[in-house]
Amino acid sequence: MVLWGLASAPSVQAASKALVYCSESSPEGFDPGLWDSLSTSAVTTQIFQGLLAFERGHATLKPALATRWEVSPDARVFTFTLRRGVKFHATPYFTPTRDFNADDVMFTWGRFVHPDHPFNKAFPATFINAESLELSKAIAGIDRVDDHTVRFRLRAPNVNFLSVFANPFAGIHSQEYAQQLLAQGRAAVINTQPIGTGPYRFKSYKKDDVVRMVAHPQYWDGAQKTTALVYAISREAAVRVQKIARGECHVTAPLRDVDLHTLSGHPQVQILKVQAFNISYLSFHMKKPPTDRREVREALDIAIDRQALFKVLFPRGDATQAVSAFPPAVPGFNTRLRNEYNPQRARQLLQSAGLGQGFDIDLWALPMARPTNPNGLLMAQMIQQDWARIGVRARIVSYEWGEYLRRANQGEHHVYMSGWSSGTGQADDFLTPNLTCAASRGGIKFCNREFDALVEAARTEVDVNKRLALIEQAQEVFKRERPWIPMAHSTVYIPIRKDVKGFIMAPNGTVDFEGVYRE
Fold first, then answer.
1. Within a domain: 158
2. How many CB atoms lie within 10 A of CB 418?
3. Are the C-beta atoms of residues 142 and 153 closer than 8 Å to each other?
4. Would the N or C end of the chain have less CB density within 10 A of its end CB?
């Protein structure tokens, strides 16, 4: 029998105006353009806003810092009318003297598309999403029409381009603040002391412990009922479960399905769920032997017993095996593709590659629990056993999350576990940022010209049926070349305390605390 207590503990009562979110990992930084992890965007989306946003719980676009937009018939010109009267955050380290306007859009997007931008010279940075989407090549120009109108001109049609403006990385910075930092020779501070227009402003951060934010009193859409927003960082899923059970946090990062039983029947906790646009996968280093060889990647893929793995890692049956680079619910999914489990053929592939005696390889285990990968170490151990049966000796490696990402981006791995969630539910949102040559990072990741040509053709094709056919062809190249071993798509579960009002789950598992409060 589980006894639930502390629902009315003094510490909870004392924090009655605060909302505490139990996060699974620390943010990598606070400049949204620099990062692409969910743990970072979970913080920055409370502080920053883009020109557009997604309707909460859906992938439908809505106005944010732009009140309206126009798209030319050829999908090359995008014109935005900016919202008036929007105030930037005032903090101990910055006091704005003007409202948001076109200069802030020009500064934010100028960093993405102009490598020689003065701020980029002072603070050299890698804009992961902007580079993966090749924005500097795609955008022919950005025009400041007037204080409240900005026009983006593309070199080629892009039917998916509007969704970019709602992506977390596209949060708008204050040009005035950036100029202040530049004049002080402190440009890098933009990543540690953020200034945005969002419902919450940054207060403090203690690495691997807590992020504190407070309500923005001049927020354009009304002040928040929640005056203090706290992110308590708890890497272990079991710890987050116990914290929400005791009322020490009020919303948690997505849970593993194996944790749901622990909270079932709790009188003060409800569990929300959504079928997410997500995927977990094993990504190969595409230039490091032996994973630089296609037949080796195929052998490692078909040696994995997914049926056995799913029985252990997803006992509730709420996850599905990934076959392609995105879930079956996404338009353009190629239904002809299949997974294969065939250790005998895997051994034959290695034999034909001259590796019949086996080899050593590093397998990186995800250091945190995610809905699509609830136990990275256990997944790695099961895959290690499967690969041992074909003569492959896998050494399991893992690091703290920030270090894990840094080392993987530098190409220190053979195979590492990763994942992706889409806010748009579009195939291009999975393919372009992860699998095109622009995302290859010097060949560490996949780069295939045939694949790129198909993705680019789909992006510019206005006929829906033709576009979906091109996406299906791109997946056939993906399956043939096997840059990933696709693993799982999952249902996402987020437990919340029953006194939390206004919280809506997003299909990509992100959190939005605008308008969320405790009774």
1. yes
2. 21
3. yes
4. N
Give pLDDT tens digits for 15-59: 447 999 999 989 999 999 999 888 899 999 999 999 999 888 777
C-alpha Rg value of the chain to the nearest Å? 23
Residue 452 token pair: 């790129």
DSSP readout, 141-192?
EEEEEETTEEEEEESS--TTGGGGGGSGGGPPPPHHHHHHHHHHT-GGGGGT
**From CA 159, how far away is CA 168, in angstroms rounded?**
19
Cα 121 to Cα 125, 179, 252, 373, distances in angstroms: 9, 13, 39, 39
The one-letter amino acid at 501 = K
pTM for this model (two decimals): 0.78
Say yes or no: 313 and 423 in one domain.
yes
What does the chain come to in residues?
519
Q: What is the mean pLDDT of the chain?
A: 92
Rounded to 5 degrees, φ, ψ at 427 are -60, -40
Residue whose entry in the numeric block shows the structure tokens 């500064």: 107
Check which CATH number belongs to the domain holding 352 and give it: 3.10.105.10
Determine how many CB atoms are found less than 10 A away from the CB of residue 326. Answer: 30
Q: 252-288: buried (b, 16+ CB within 10 Å) or exposed (e) per residue?
A: bbbbbbbbbebbeebebbeeebbebbbbbbbbbbbeb
- 53's tokens: 């946003």
In a domain, 217, yes or no: no
* Position 350 pLDDT exceeds 70: yes
Residue with tokens 């006992």: 315
